[in-house]
Amino acid sequence: MSADRNVGAAARALEPESLIENNASLHDITNAVCAPVETEVSKTPIGWIISFVIALGMLGVFGATVGYLVWKGIGVWGNNQPVGWAWDITNFVWWIGIGHAGTLISAILFLFKQKWRTSINRFAEAMTIFAVLCALQFPLLHTGRPWLAIYWLFPLPNQMSVWPNFRSPLLWDVFAVSTYFLVSALFWYVGLIPDLATLRDRAKTRVRAIIYGILAVGWRGSNRHFQHYEKAYLILAGLSTPLVLSVHSIVSFDFATSVIPGWHTTIFPPYFVAGAVFSGFGLVMTLMLLAREFYGLKHLVTMRVLENMNKIILVTGTMVGYAYAMEFFIAWYGGNPYEKFAFLNRAFGPYAWAYWTMISCNVISPQLFWFRKIRRSIPMMFILSIFVNIGMWFERFVIIVTSLHRDFLPSSWGYFRPTIFDVGMYVGTFGLFFTLFLLFLRFLPMVAISEIKGVSKHADSHGPSHGVGHGHGQQVIEHSKETH
Amino acid sequence: MSGYTPSKSGLVDDTFGIVAEFASPYELLEAVKAVRKAGFSKIDTHTPFPIHGMDKAMGLPGSKLPWLVLCGGLLGTASAIALQWWMNGYDYAYHVGGKPVVSYQAYVPIGFELTVLFSAFTAVLGMLAMNLLPQPYHPLFNHPRFGRFSDDGFFLSIEAKDPSFSESKAREVLKTAGGTEITLIRETPET
Q1: What is the pTM assigned to this prediction?
Q2: Is ipTM over 0.90?
């Protein structure tokens, strides 16, 4: 008897919190997600309009900065010898890293059947695409003449009959990042098809019916279609998983294959990937907290989802902390005096302020997530998610600038300072990002309607004999009860 | 239009099929089993999300898409290797740092990226092609209630092309299975 009761209590304790609160019906879910997209133009929320105007203003800053940069040349940036790569590459790596959370959520968590991902995957995938777009601006404009860069970035025939050097990690980067962008966009679009059909079927005006109709490619929820569709989705998830790991690995090769002390290390690929996921979850968290508050989606993006995200931030933050420690260990254990100097210089040199900002934001602050209270406190997770973003930007800055500013010869040492154009372009990419993101929130469903319905209790196809349990995990618990 | 047969009135019979609604995924799944038992095969379901166990209930063979994607992926790998070998090793041989002209180790990253790129495009375009999408017009869209499939409706359709199709038999089977709003659908909108 008592054994039975213990098993029952254990089963209750193991029973996960519901993914969707308030017992929402399928129709409620459709309404909740479609509402922000279907608001009439005249009733657009004032908060959205204000945000959009600010975003457009920042986009204007981007346009002006880029215009001047192209007019004058990249000398308007602060980079010069010895710091030839500075904010531009820092921002590039940072934005690319931001994107990685989207792919992790959409692909890796899908393969691991983490059902909680369904409320945030659309949102995070959109973020991926826009972040990669922002990232691409920096290397493209660092070429100085982007309209000619196409000949040295892509293998196109030209009048000199010269091809790009395929042994260069910079060229691998071009292929990795453009593949990543295209595959992410495909993945996002495939996931959107059933939801675009929902918007088409609910359209009140002819224009909406036609636009969403074209985008929905005539989707009619057919099971014969779903069969191929689900297979395609699974394949895309399977392809994106190694892809996302490869992209930041290849980005890290830009540094790791050089001979600069502080860059020439084999830990870079895994360390960059962990950092990318860490920073990406930080930004997803910041934006998701605002969006769920603003659009009333708290019953779809539940505390359980947020807590899980905080756990991933804790894990990846700890991995990043481990990588920092290991870099120091190897700098000492490797016995290379330049390497040793590079790391002491990082922590105690002229850029020590940047290094310790990085350590406080990336290593110390996420450790607070060990406490359940903090993992479940909205203000705390909001603040910490911003710390993560700041910390990860500084990580890229520290790696790039501190390694370059004092290399082998003291006669060539220097100190990098950003100019107003460095700042303007970085701020400007936020304008680009938020403009696209706000348009996404206004015109596309921010939660994957079809997928979230699939994890609701209404999706149960097992019939009444199974009772309340719909998740397979719960059934396992029920079966174990029966065996006792 | 070979599927069209003249009806008794002498006009072309443009029946597309018959469609019914069910209250839940479970009822739909049971109805599919019943409809198949009654001898219909040209059936389909229309639901807001894919239903667990429906492929088996409908007796669909597995999707061939993975094989197509495998071919696409291999083509990607081959293109990447050919591209890099031909450009740097043959057409304009690069001598850098005393390394062999054909240094295949360096081909790995781009080889991988193009494999993924080609596979992803094959998966998406292949999926659309196998589903005969985009398809802007479909008779089911004439059904005024059909739009609910993308919200909370669970529909089952039986096509008139089914060799054992007869309207009365289809109606009866669907009704016994618990279907509501059983409606005959025409190929073209009714005027």
Answers
A1: 0.90
A2: yes
